Amino acid sequence: MVTKRIANPWSGNRLEGSNPSASAKGEERMEKSLIKAKSKRLSYILRHRPDSVGLQLDHQGWASVEELLECLKGRLTREELEEIVRTNNKQRFAFNEDCSKIRANQGHSIKVDLAYEPQVPPDVLYHGTVNKAASSIKATGLKKMNRHHVHLSVDVETALDVGSRRGKPVLFCVDAKKMHEDGYKFFKSENNVWLTDSVPVDYLKERK
Ligand code: HQG
C-alpha cells in the first residue's frame, strides 16, 4: 500500500511507511512540490505577513535567517531555505552577502524600502493582465493596487505568464522610453522585474 502524502508545506517530515519501490522520479516530484509550497508560504511571510509567524523585517525588508527559522519552529530547515532561494523559478528571494539575512526581491504589500536605484528602462516593457481589468486599465492606466509598484516584464512571454495566473491574458505594451524621457522613475528588482509607480494611459497600448 502506498501511503498518501499530504502536501503540508510546513510538515517538513518525510512520511514513514511509503512504498519502498516508489520511483525516484516520484520522490523527486514530491520534493519539488513541497519546496514549491514552502516557497509560496515564504513569499506570503516576507512580502505580506511577517507578523503571521511573529517575524520582524527591517525597513529594507530583510529578516534574520536565524529568526525566520526559529519563528517557523523547525517547519523549514536551513537547507530547504537555501534550496528555495537557489531554485526559485523567478528568483523571488535573496540572501545578503553573508547569508545571515533574507528578503523578497519584490512584490511586497507591507511598507519596505527596497532601496533600488532608479535606472534607465528598456524602450518597451510589458504588462500582462486579465480581461476584467483591461477596460479599467485603458481608462485609468496601470496602478500599483495592493503592491508597492506596478510590475512590468522585459518580454512578452513573461508578461503573458503573469496575466495567465487569473485567466486568459491581455497584454499591454508600455512606452517606457517616453515615460523615462518624461521623468518617470523606473527601478529594476534583483530578479529582473521592472517597477514603477504608475503607467498613465498615454504610455499604454493594448497588444492584440
Ligand atoms: C491590475 C507575480 C484595474 C493588474 C507576477 C493586475 C508579477 C488594474 C492586478 C507580480 C489597474 C494587480 C505582480 C487598474 C492594474 N484597474 N486593474 N487601473 N491597474 N491593475 O498581483 O502585476 O509570482 O498585484 O493588471 O508574476 O499581476 O508573486 O500585480 O492584474 O510579477 O512573484 O491589478 O506578482 O509574481 O495584481 O503581478 P498583482 P501583477 P509572484
Give an overview of the whole structure.
The structure is a single chain. The chain is α+β, with helices and mostly antiparallel strands and 208 residues long. The protein contains six helices and nine strands, in the order H-E-H-H-E-E-E-H-E-H-E-H-E-E-E. A three-stranded antiparallel beta sheet has the order 1-3-2. A three-stranded antiparallel beta sheet has the order 4-6-9. A three-stranded antiparallel beta sheet has the order 5-8-7, with no helix packed on it. Strand 7 and strand 8 form a beta hairpin. Helix 1 crosses helix 3. The longest helix has 25 residues. The radius of gyration is 20 Å and the shape is globular. The N terminus is likely disordered. The site of ligand HQG has 17 residues, from strand 4 and helix 4.
Structural Rg? 20 Å
Distance between the termini: 52 Å
**What is the SS-derived class?**
alpha+beta
Number of strands: 9
Mean pLDDT: 90
The sequence of SSEs as H and E is HEHHEEEHEHEHEEE
CATH architecture of the largest domain: Alpha-Beta Barrel
CATH domain fold name of the largest domain: ADP-ribosylation fold
CATH class of the largest domain: Alpha Beta
Task: Catalogue the ligands.
Answer: ligand HQG
Please sum up the structure shown.
With 208 residues, the chain is α+β, with helices and mostly antiparallel strands.
Strand and helix layout:
Blueprint: H1 24-48, E1 63-64, H2 65-71, H3 78-87, E2 93-95, E3 101-104, E4 124-130, H4 131-140, E5 150-152, H5 156-164, E6 169-175, H6 176-181, E7 187-188, E8 194-196, E9 204-207
Antiparallel strand pairs: 1-3, 2-3, 4-6, 5-8, 6-9, 7-8
The structure holds ligand HQG.
